[in-house]
């Protein structure tokens, strides 16, 4: 009968008349996210322990906190935020087919990471020269543990950025290689987020 709509017509209209919804996927490899969530859990526990002991000795922690140079923390925060912006832009450049630009952006992010390491080494040197070491009191024990563990993550993150730079030398990336690229970027963003929390807790919170 003319004018009747059949099930095949509906299926054809759905398939050809409407654009399919864009597929969504979790960036990076699944193993990277296991590592990220594991690291964040460890740091969350460490932050909780730090706050617990700070609540028990507020005067000691505030007095010790006054010996920190907030300028170091602020500069390192700006450096890591800049590096994360560069990494995000690099991943977008790869997706847009501009690997050369992406590689330059990744090198910029690695430079930011190197600046962070140098600043942290200078800060450690100043503290140690004034006799402020992990054994000084509980505050400085947690200061060195948290910032030192984070510093190791920065170094590891820079190695992953090196992997990103290597991948941008290829004209095209396979799905797995794209996952490696995105996963490395996600790990670097985690390093940035962790530092923001550490900066707030250790340098700013009274």
TrEMBL record:
InterPro entries referenced in this protein's UniProt entry, alphabetically: Cyt_c/ubiquinol_Oxase_su3, Cyt_c_oxidase-like_su3, Cyt_c_oxidase_su3-like_sf, Cyt_c_oxidase_su3_a-hlx
BP-aspect Gene Ontology terms: aerobic electron transport chain
Topological relation to the membrane, as annotated: Multi-pass membrane protein
Principal location: membrane
Reactions catalysed, as given in the entry: 4 Fe(II)-[cytochrome c] + O2 + 8 H(+)(in) = 4 Fe(III)-[cytochrome c] + 2 H2O + 4 H(+)(out)
Transmembrane segments: 32-53, 73-93, 105-122, 142-165, 186-205
PROSITE patterns the UniProt entry points to: COX3
GO cellular component annotations of the record: plasma membrane
GO molecular function: cytochrome-c oxidase activity
Domain Heme-copper oxidase subunit III family profile: 31-206
Keyword GTP-binding listed: no
Residue segments, region Disordered: 1-24
Location(s) in or outside the cell: Cell membrane; Membrane
Keyword tags: Membrane, Transmembrane, Transmembrane helix
Coiled-coil residues: none
Protein family per UniProt: Belongs to the cytochrome c oxidase subunit 3 family.
PANTHER family: CYTOCHROME C OXIDASE SUBUNIT III, NITRIC OXIDE REDUCTASE SUBUNIT E
This protein's name: Probable cytochrome c oxidase subunit 3
């Amino acid at each position: 009968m003319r004018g009747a709509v059949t099930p095949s017509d509906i299926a054809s209209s759905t398939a050809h008349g409407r654009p399919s919804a864009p597929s969504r996927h979790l960036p990076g490899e699944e193993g990277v996210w296991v590592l990220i969530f594991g690291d964040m859990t460890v740091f969350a526990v460490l932050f909780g322990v730090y706050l617990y002991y700070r609540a028990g000795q507020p005067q000691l922690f505030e007095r010790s906190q006054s010996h920190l140079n907030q300028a170091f923390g602020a500069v390192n925060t700006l450096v890591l935020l800049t590096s994360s912006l560069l990494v995000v832009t690099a991943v977008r450049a790869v997706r847009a087919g501009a690997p050369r630009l992406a590689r330059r952006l990744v090198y910029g992010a690695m430079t930011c990471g190197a600046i962070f390491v140098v600043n942290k080494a200078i800060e450690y040197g100043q503290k140690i020269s004034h006799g402020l070491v992990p054994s000084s009191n509980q505050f400085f024990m947690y200061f060195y543990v948290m910032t030192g563990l984070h510093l190791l993550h920065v170094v590891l993150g820079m190695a992953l950025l090196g992997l990103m730079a290597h991948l941008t030398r290829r004209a095209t990336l396979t799905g797995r290689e794209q996952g490696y690229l995105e996963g490395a970027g996600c790990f670097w963003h985690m390093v940035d987020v962790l530092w923001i929390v550490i900066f707030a807790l250790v340098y700013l919170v009274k």
